[in-house]
Amino acid sequence: MSENLFSILKSRFPDDLTKTFIQAGNGQTFSYADMLARSAQYANVLTRLGLVPGDRIAVQVQKSTEALMVYLGAIRAGAAFLPLNTAYTPAELSYFLGDAEPGVVVCRSSRLDDIRAIAGSANVETLGDGGEDGSLLALADAAPTAFKEADLNGDDLAAILYTSGTTGRAKGAMLTQGNLSSNAEALATTWEFTPEDHLLHALPIYHTHGLFTATNTILYAGASMIFLPKFDAEETLSLLPQATTMMGVPTFYSRLLNCEGLTRDSVEHIRVFISGSAPLSPEVHKEFEFRTGHAILERYGMTETGMIASNPYDGARRAGTVGFPLPGIEVRIADADSGKVLEQGEIGGIEVQGPNVFKGYWRMPDKTAEEFRKDGFFITGDLGMIDDKGYLNIVGREKDLIISGGFNVYPAEIEVAIDELPGVAESAVIGVPHPDFGEGVMAVVACKPGVNLSEDDVITPLGDVLARFKQPKRVVFVDALPRNAMGKVQKKELRDKCSETFQKPGN
Ligand code: AMP
Q: How would you write the pLDDT of the chain (507 residues) with one tens digit per residue?
């Protein structure tokens, strides 16, 4: 059988193709048969526009059912799908298009002139914001509704996703058919998805979480989803009674906690809530369980690897941990410099090997070589340890590690301690240049509504729980932490803002 991702997913579609695949927020439904016909139309259009397997199609459009059909059409035709965050400016796009050299670029109608100017010889087509018009849509309307999937190997390219890379040039992670299909299978099995599942999908689809983790898993299970253009806590709450599962970033869960209507009754039909892409604070985990009776299932992954580890579906879901490696995936903790594998309980770099690990960075062989060990393990850049129960704990990104007075300070440990203090909504701990210590530990704290804390209110109680070198020397207060759309705290932004803190006398 062809190892084309779509062929593998298709072999698992329900026999009754009139079954719903997508339910839009307005209640309109789109069946498996509709999806097969529509994605075939896009596959035919892309082939006619000249794409052959391995060619790239770059897409920067709003989330819509049509946009998802373009993704499936591209996979069927064997074109490598390159989704781009809708927030990227033309200047940023110019780098991605120049680097990836796509044969087709799909953009929002309002961006057409800007994109034409930077797209080189690519065909530029448009898709309207709700997916209701645009030149690509018109071409698809006129195309045949059947398409035979390109015959591909597991190692053939399926997608290129540029990683956010806070320093240096963004890198295009090359994901293969096999990377995506193996991860869909591992997740559907581990999280026990069945055709009866109805997933609430409010994630963006330019990122691995919403595009692959959520969508491919649903297709692999022959299940369905409520497909929302964006996350809105009240809207989500009103739709949860129709869903059986939800996948979200931690901010989805903290925002749901702000809704009075979040009760046990409101989530009666939900079988599992899943969280990832950024750390879920143990406080949110605890409060969510108290309010709903559900222990959120936290998992860990990244663009280059898809999902790596997950808390168990059956068994204890331990707050502050990301559980065990998924089936077929190996995780180890190694010394960042020497690569020596470390013992249980020791903190080091998280390294991973398995069918999920990407093929390398697009046109960056040297960068790729730097991030793999000789025995094939990928160096994730995250720091972690395996605890006494065998669960993987993430203690932060290597580049966020603070070295103060020669001691390693892992931000996650301090953030957890601060988040437990009364009146704290969320916190981020960063290291900034310090004349004596090299780096000084600083905390950025957002208080709960109506609460005013002082620096002492935060620092003094930490004296009982943290060694002195870990305690923040300064605390600054903000209304909310800066986060990107995936809920990741933008620590570089905080470090830049606070870089002078310890340079002033008296600090
Ligand atoms: P991305 O490539 O945008 O998906 O980002 C991947 C990074 O997000 C990982 O390398 C981790 O640093 C972080 N991440 C993902 N899931 C989790 C999690 N459950 N807990 C902590 N960090 C996470």
A: 899 999 999 999 999 999 999 999 888 899 999 999 999 999 999 999 999 999 999 999 999 999 999 999 999 999 999 999 988 888 889 999 999 999 999 999 999 999 999 999 999 999 998 888 999 999 999 999 999 999 999 999 999 999 865 456 789 999 999 999 999 999 999 999 999 999 999 999 999 999 999 999 999 999 999 999 999 999 999 999 999 999 999 999 999 999 999 999 999 999 999 999 999 999 999 999 999 999 999 999 999 999 999 999 999 999 999 999 999 999 999 998 899 999 999 999 999 999 999 999 999 999 999 999 999 999 999 999 999 999 999 998 898 999 988 888 999 999 999 999 999 999 999 999 998 888 999 999 999 999 999 999 999 999 988 988 899 999 999 999 999 988 899 999 999 999 999 976 555
Phi and psi at 81, nearest 5°, equal -85, 130
Å from CA of 277 to ligand 1 middle:
4
Which residue's CA is the nearest one to ligand 1's atom 8? 277
How many CB atoms are closer than 10 A to CB 369?
11
Residue 222: CB atoms within 10 Å:
21
Ligand 1 is surrounded, with C-beta below 6 A, by 163-164, 208, 276-279, 298, 300-303, 322, 380, 382, 394, 397, 486
If one residue of 273, 379, 394 were mutated to test the ligand 1 pocket, choosing by the most ligand atoms within 8 A of its CB, it would be 394
CATH 3.30.70.2740, applies to 273-397: no
Fold of 402-503: GMP Synthetase; Chain A, domain 3 (3.30.300)
What is the fold, at CATH topology level, of the domain defined by 5-230? Answer: Rossmann fold (3.40.50)
174 vs 183: CA distance, rounded Å: 15
Domain definitions of the chain by residue range: 5-230, 273-397, 402-503
Q: Please, where are the H alpha helices in 31-120? A: 32-48, 65-77, 90-100, 112-118
Q: What is the pTM of this model?
A: 0.92
Residue with the smallest CA separation from ligand 1 atom 21 is: 279
